[in-house]
Amino acid sequence: MRTRLVVLLCVLLALGASAAIRIGGTLGDPHFDAESPAGILKTDPAFLHYVTQRIVDAGGLPPDDFRADPRVEWPEVSDLPGMFTVGQEFAVAWFHLLLGDGAPLHVRAVWLMGAWASLAALGAFLLARELTGSAGWGAFAAVLWALLPANYRTLGFVLIREDFAFPFFALHLGLLARALRVRSAASIALAAVALLAAAATWHAMGFFALMEAACLALWFLRSGENPLDAPRAWLAPALLAGGSLLVPVLLAKQFALSLPMQLLGALLAAALWRRRTGDARRARWVFAGGLALLSGGSWLASRLSGGGLADYSHVVEFLLAKLGRLGRMPEDPAELSFGTLLLWQGPFATAPPEVFTYGLTVGIPVLAWGLWAAAPGWLRGRRDDGLPVLVALTALSFLATWMVVRVQILPGLLVPVLAAVLLARVASRRTALALAAVALVVQAGLVQRFVLAQDVDWYVQPAGPGRIAERQQMIAWIDQNVPAGEAVVADFLNSAAIVAFTGRPVVQQPKYETARSRDRIEAFFRALFQGTPRDLHALALSWRSRWLVVDRPWLANNCTLGGIPMREFFQRGARPGTAASFLIHPDPNVYGRVPGFRLRYQTTSAGGFPSFAIYQLMPPQRAPR
């Protein structure tokens, strides 16, 4: 009884501490505005705020134009649940409506998502408990999870989909370990439904599921142990495939044909072969043949149906480019495709060393220990309490994190679990407890340092603290001066804030998971940095817009998206004659007299150089020849 109470208190401590760090760190940030979100939200958080506010305005139900929204990518309509993994927005909207105390929506989102994201600790607890057979080591994993700075990458971002989806994935891993132990229909179904919920609420979950399925497949090829050997294991791929047909975005992206589903299908074919024939040696060949057939069939079906899978082609190009260039961005952007350039920024950048040395400090020795401990299992190809698969997935998550810094939450979950599994195997209980105490003390010190040093500079990038006030000015001017219903052309980062806080239609949005979205972003940047003012003028008119917002500092820092090397831009400026040479020029006599554009407003900057300028397009006949 006493042990259970200690375990419960440890898990509650992990949940409470994690939620407090997230909520307190966000609300206490010096740049956070608890009154108005207009100055601090941009890109993805601003877009999610827009969708959430529309659900609030509809009383918690989908808005009437939810499947044909005209404001997100004007002049086309957008099927929001078909294009995006909508889920978090409903949860926040319902929470906001339930409380109904007049607090700002973005503050309510901080409270709910801070608490929700901390639920990943339950997944760490359940997975470690299943793999060790000990609730005590499960509690250790939950507490260690709460002490890893890597698990707080999204602190301060207010609305980010991974905060909502990742606890589902963490729960799925714990339920999967349980399903592999008890092999009941209910356990298998629960594990599959948790994964389906994760995939339905964040696009990247498809790649997490791919890493998981790849490790299970590799272990099967090495050992012959098939996770789908259980009599009712077919429920997992059936529920995932069938459930994906009921979720608009998973149906549009053809999740049922994705690589994780192909691997699961091939494993199921191998399991059925083994069960019916008893031939375990040829089961591997059945797996290989089944995977080839499923891959070919999925590719053909995707091409014939219009290609939901093709929306992720830029991700494959991006990953191959990252590996081929060892994570280093080439100086000349022309060496990469536009889709790769678009991804190679922000949360998709190559992880700096401090992510591993600071964010995942104990993870480095834990992974090294795990590789050493799992080597005999891989060499023998024998079942070893799940350790070889857990180590393989952890090692793969480290590689994925190096390639994409955003992925650090995956090793952030797996490292505590792996540490618990390894410590549970130590013969001396006193030694194991001493090592556990050292790990917790080290990480407690680091997370305290992390909390004390917290400063979300994302709010003010790239031009400093004045950015918040300037963005508020820009949005207020549009709200007061641009006629309702008229579209605004702006970069994808600021477009999200414009549509969220003015309701004016925009032509770009920051969730570029579709080819149409990426094509629009590319057209804008090419016209700006390589075309003339007339080209940009014509492009804006083709989108049926007569308003242009220019964010000079941000566009300058993202000149590579326009095919211009950053070093060249900052040494020589924009190429003469291009639209950028006028619009991003520091001289008001130049940016105030752009052919075809009338400067209507520029923000007031404390530093003397206004970040935002708003132009109105002149009639076409007055555009330059």
Question: Mind explaining what this structure looks like?
Answer:
- A hairpin with a 2-residue loop joins strand 1 and strand 2.
- A 4-stranded mixed β-sheet has the order 3-4-6-5, with helices on both faces. A two-stranded antiparallel ribbon has the order 1-2.
- The protein has helices at residues 2-27, 43-57, 80-83, 88-99, 105-117, 120-132, 135-146, 161-182, 185-201, 205-223, 235-244, 248-252, 259-277, 283-304, 313-324, 338-343, 354-359, 363-380, 387-403, 409-424, 429-452, 466-481, 492-502, 515-529, 533-542, 552-557, 566-572, 579-583, 588-591; strands at 69-73, 76-78, 487-489, 545-551, 597-602, 612-617.
- The model has no long low-confidence stretch (mean pLDDT 89).
- It contains 29 helices and 6 strands.
- Helix content is 61%, strand content 5%.
- By secondary structure, it is mainly alpha-helical.
- It has 3 domains: 2-114, no CATH class; 115-452, no CATH class; 466-622, Rossmann fold (3-Layer(aba) Sandwich).
